[in-house]
Amino acid sequence: MKKIIVVFLLLNGLLLHAQQPAFITDSLDSYIQREMKRWQIPGLAIAIVKGDKVVATKGYGITDLDTKQAVDANTLFMIASNSKAFTGTSLALMEKNGQLNLNDKVIDYLPYFAMHDPAITKMVTVEDVLSHRLGLETFQGDFVTWDSDLGRKKLIENFKNNIPVYDFRDTYGYCNMGFLVAGEVIHAVTDTTWDDYVQYHFFNPLQMERSSTTQAALLKDNNKCSPYTYFDGRIQKIDYDNVDNIGPAASINSSVNDLSHWLLMQVGNGNYKGKQIMPADVIQNTRSPRSIAGSGSSRLYKSQHFNLYGLGWFIKDLDGKKTLSHSGGANGFVTNTVIIPEAQLGVVVLTNTDANGLYEALCYQIIESYLNLPYRNLSEIYYGFYAPGFEETKQQMQNWEKITGKNPSPALDLSAYTGTYQNPVYGNITITKADKGLSISFEHHSHLKGVLKPAGNNLFICYYDPISWGVKEIPFVVEDGKVKSVTITINDFIDFLPYEFTKL
Predict the structure, then answer these.
(1) Phi then psi for 11, rounded to 5 degrees?
(2) Vertex 97 angle, CA 91 and 210, to 5°
(3) Is 173 strand, coil or helix?
(4) Is 291's pLDDT higher than 80?
(5) 366 and 375 in contact (C-beta within 8 Å)?
(6) Residues 177, 131, 116, 421: is their CA dihedral positive or negative?
(7) Helix 176-190 vs helix 84-96: crossing angle, to nearest 10
(8) Which CATH class for the 2-389 domain?
(9) Is residue 194 within 8 Å of residue 186, measured between CB atoms?
(10) How distant is the alpha carbon of residue 489 from its chain centre?
(11) What is the pLDDT, as a whole number, of residue 449?
(12) Cys-Cys with 462: which of 263, 431, 474, 487 at CB 3.0–4.6 Å?
């Protein structure tokens, strides 16, 4: 009997192998190893599922450049915004269970929620906050959320200070705060935190035993990737982001072994290992478009017809097939998930540097091989997109170093720029004198500092610490010989918009 079982398993394995594209069986490992060198990626992991089978869960490279620990299928990465599909599915499940309706008003559950316009506040629904249609610019307000000391309720109470850029429900603007609001609706309705809800409804039934929702859980784990960024011409290690306060938008930590279970449920329309973990109509609800996320075509797929957003999923077409996808980015990590439901195909790629395009290119390289599309090196194509930006950043850094290296004198004495400055969205910053320049500290980011070097007139160059926050030009506004305000910008990986702080 044992021999029969062994033979069956061997034959089943051979059959599964035979059904895979040649790229997967013959070239995948060498492709990944080669392209990781091109992008200077320390560690990477992939998951591929087809039908009800896991084709691959595998790690490549190392978790840390110092320890040289190998990445394996159980290594933890921050998956960042790939958390959003878990939140969107949670709300769809609650609607299915009769606990709420997605068209319910947010203020019915969170009386302290408010938009800048009180009239809009009364109209915002649960579906609105899940669909990036609040009228804000992409990443608007993330300056105050990312790595800050403000809790979830305080962030929501402060949300009204963001002045929308677009009309309500008119234009797509990717909004992390919307998903935080959705997560707190879960808490209000169920008296269960978003963290516990996700644990109970997803991690436990899907046997995602390594997955968690907090920085503390990640830090105590011995098999996790360290985060890296590209700065000053080389890959450098940085601190882990703490995004617990916007957990429903970004805080899940997971491995490709765990995420392969999530993929199996997705391609199985809610079924995992023969058990219906999630009702099929809940899964389908998350894939129903709510917003137009952009034009159909992209640099990679000129024949794409639409780019929409559901409940935690981007919805596009690829080779005539509906495609679900989402990327995720935290400082030091970028990740991607792509699912083609009608092909019962799902792919996840996790990386531990935020300065690469392979996390996305590799997903589609695998997808294209299964769709029997003509081979093209997507990583090489993506590098062509990214390389000019890398060179531009390098040149800009060199220019700033030349300017500040000449020690130009500011228009006023350095003491004139010192003091406390206030912005309604962020709060206060403090600027003090430092060696040959100024120093800036942030009310809600105790770990964040900035050194401002004079660049002539009333312009300074700010070198942030941590380096993941970037190097930026910081102009002061002076009227009648007095400093009136300063405009702060940070790495657009965190927030695109400038913030004007008025001197108190």
Answers:
(1) -65, -40
(2) 55
(3) coil
(4) yes
(5) no
(6) positive
(7) 40
(8) alpha beta
(9) yes
(10) 19
(11) 96
(12) 474
Query: CA 447 → CA 109, 246, 444, 467, distances in Å?
Result: 34, 18, 9, 12
**CA-wise closest residue to 40 among 393, 390, 398:** 390
Structure tokens at 155: 């962030």
Handedness of CA 162, 166, 170, 174 (dihedral sign): negative
**What's the rounded Cα separation, in Å, for the pair 389 and 391?**
5
Q: How many Å apart are CA 37 and CA 24, to the nearest integer?
A: 19
Domain parsing of the chain, residue ranges: 2-389, 406-503
Question: Quick one: CA dihedral 200, 202, 204, 209, positive or negative?
Answer: negative
Task: Determine contact, residues 164/134, Cβ cutoff 8 Å.
Answer: yes
Pairing mode, strands 471-479 and 333-340: unpaired
Closest CA to 228 of 215, 237, 219, 220: 237
Annotate 421-470 with DSSP letters as a single string.
Answer: EEETTTEEEEEEEETTEEEEEETTEEEEEEEEEE-SBTEEEEEEESGGG-
Q: What are phi and psi of 294, to 5 degrees?
A: 165, -175
> 235 pLDDT exceeds 60?
yes
Amino acid at 429: I
Residues facing residue 66 across a β-bridge? none
Instruction: Give the fold, CATH level 3, of 406-503.
Output: Lipocalin (2.40.128)
